[in-house]
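Weekly sync notes, structure subgroup
Attendees: PM, AL, DS (notes)

Item 1: joint prediction request from the bench team. They want all two components modeled as one assembly rather than separately. Inputs as received:
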Amino acid sequence: MKRTLRNLLSVVTLTMIAVVLFAFVTPQDQKAGAPWVIPANYKSMANPQKGKADPDKVGQMLYTKHCKSCHGGSGLGDGPKASSQETKINSFKDAKFQAQTDGQIYFESFMDREMKSFEKKIPAAEDRWAVVNYLRTLK
Amino acid sequence: MKKYILFIILFSLISVISFAQDAATDSTAVTEKDKPVRSPFESGYLIGAQTTVIQNVKTLEAVIQHTFGTIENGHSDLWGIYAPGANIRLGLDYVIMKNFQIGIGMTKKNMMTDLNAKWTIIQQTRKNTFPVAIALYGNVAVDGRNISAFESGLVRQAFTGPTTSFSFSDRLSYFSELIIGRKFTDRLSLQAGLSFSHYNSVGTDYDHDKIGFHFNGRMKVSPQGSIIFNYDAPLKIKEITEQISWTNPPKPNLAIGYEISTSTHAFQIYMGTADGLLPQDNIMWNQKDFTKHQLFIGFNITRLWGF
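Output from the run, pasted for the record:
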């Protein structure tokens, strides 16, 4: 009985040590997203909603509903689900992000990649552009 | 009493439509295609009621509806959370075509299994071409209890002998509802409805049919949060009752709660009186009275999957 207990204790101790050691081996950081390859037609795509007033706050409403949980309330990429994503979420306030054309942001926001496409959840193009416009206000 | 009830129904339905008409007048010059309003409600469920909302085509909505026991005993059973009498319904709804969904659900109380369908005939549009949304909802539910339960429960309670004539159809009940709703502002959406409930088999003291009036809505208080309410009133209509006097008529159901919605979830927590979870159960059998604090805590969780 004593021997069994001692064996058990050894197994548990070894497992614990292994877990602690593996913690240093396994990468803990989220990987950075690969550079975007954006088709030319999206790069030059005009935003049909550009400059349009959004009195119903459609962009903000859709952002809050679909994006906020990962991208954070002010777009810093610090939402409650951000840390559990495999890829690091960049800030919308980043000058590099804001320097892109509306078409590029549209492509990055709605095409399938690490982040699943939101085309089905936001079916109307008008509403998607409203989200792009809202992202512009976050800088 | 009957006149009064009819007045309430007509007033509610007419006021929903006439409010809508006011706003409709200034948009006739616009030739652009009128699109449906954006999410008048966040989910197809509103506490125990249905909304005119149907998700996008090929969306599966799973719902967990749960009610605890009543709060009557206070902290001794943690306001009903430890109390017996909890009810739960697990449901799945699938949108097979635009504005038409079918669903199935299992309810603990009376071991009910329901098949349901909802059709949003007309969606309210942004420029008021259609000022209201109109939907039809219907279900058929099977009481799955052992045959012996039908002699002691609400059903066939007057029978004492063996149930030789008992057949499967005696287990069935139906509910159908016409829902008219309007999103008045980005914050406020209201719905009124008229329903017809039918149980194939009831005790001799009860009616087979009941007409119900429904009124519910939401008031958004933040981009994701709303105050929600639901009121269901079983109507006392002499013409359709089988009884000479009203003994234990079902009581109205009032529930008030708070809803939080995200991309794929709607979470509703509420206090209410009717714990049937199936609408025909609430309209036909509810004996809990909110004026006597016979309230319980309940919640709904919905989850969407797109295919």
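Discussion: The mean pLDDT of chain A is 87.
Action: AL to compare against the crosslinking data before next sync.
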